Amino acid sequence: MDRIMIVGFCGCGKSTLARQIGNLLGIEPTYMDALHWLPGWVESSNEHKINLLTPILKRDRWIVEGSYRAVLYKERMEKADTIIFLDFNRFLCLYRVIKRRIMYNGKTRPDMGEGCKEKLDLEFLKWVVYDCRKKRRKIYEELFFAKKKFGTDKKIYIFRKRKDVNRFIERIERNEI
Predict the structure, then answer these.
(1) For the segment 41-79, what is each residue's pLDDT rounded down to a tens digit?
(2) Are 168 and 157 in contact (CB under 8 A)?
(3) Whole-angstrom Cα distance, residue 96 to residue 126?
(4) Fewest beta carbons less than 10 Å away: which of 19, 24, 29, 138?
(5) What kind and span of H or E run contains 24?
(6) What ranges do the domains of the chain cover?
């Protein structure tokens, strides 16, 4: 595993997994939220994100966490040797988002852009429970397409439970992956 793409729903643990894998493999993760959000929760342009992400994708080894379909998404899928989709239950994700809000109250998370103190509003809660789930079927189609178009040597992992993620991490620790 040298080029890893991690996608999934808000609150499913993408950033945590990226950090864990990064620590084990010696690869500094790139967090799409950190590229997207400028200080004070100001959204950056797609051009800005593309300019920051392009040199990262030219490296021999990288981990990119987050979807952001308008920002080199197909390129990431093509170049990745490993794609991980965290497809966790929406209510577990909701619980984690609320827990994260409490844990980082008044602080900026490590995977977020500087100056973006943790916040939670009804619009985001609705996004977590309903709106972002609308893309679930599309993600599965893209994963199937990636395997078919970009080669059978591409590893695709779909995890629906934290215990499966933990087993995956243990396999990396034992150098089985």
Answers:
(1) 999 999 999 999 999 999 999 999 998 999 999 999 999
(2) yes
(3) 14
(4) 138
(5) helix 14-25
(6) 3-173
* Count of Cβ atoms closer than 10 Å to residue 133 Cβ: 15
Q: Is 30 exposed, middle or buried (0-12, 13-18, 19+ CB in 10 A)?
A: buried
Residue 113 has what pLDDT?
84
Q: Which of 58, 79, 59, 64 is nearest to 22 (CA)?
A: 64
Which residues, other chains included, contact 77 with Cβ-Cβ below 8 Å and sequence gap of 6+?
Answer: 5, 83, 142, 146, 150
Strands in 13-88 per DSSP E = 29-31, 37-38, 42-43, 62-65, 82-86
141 torsion bin: left (phi>0), alpha (psi -120 to 50), beta (else): alpha
The answer to whether the Cα torsion of 83, 136, 20, 50 is positive or negative is positive
* 18, 2, 144, 69 alpha-carbon torsion, rounded to 10°: 60
| 120 close to 98: Cβ distance less than 8 angstroms | yes
Per-residue burial over 112-124, b if 16 or more Cβ lie within 10 Å, else e, is bbeebebeeeeeb
Token match 């087993």: residue?
A: 167
Q: What pTM was computed for the model?
A: 0.93
DSSP element (H, E) containing 158:
strand 155-159
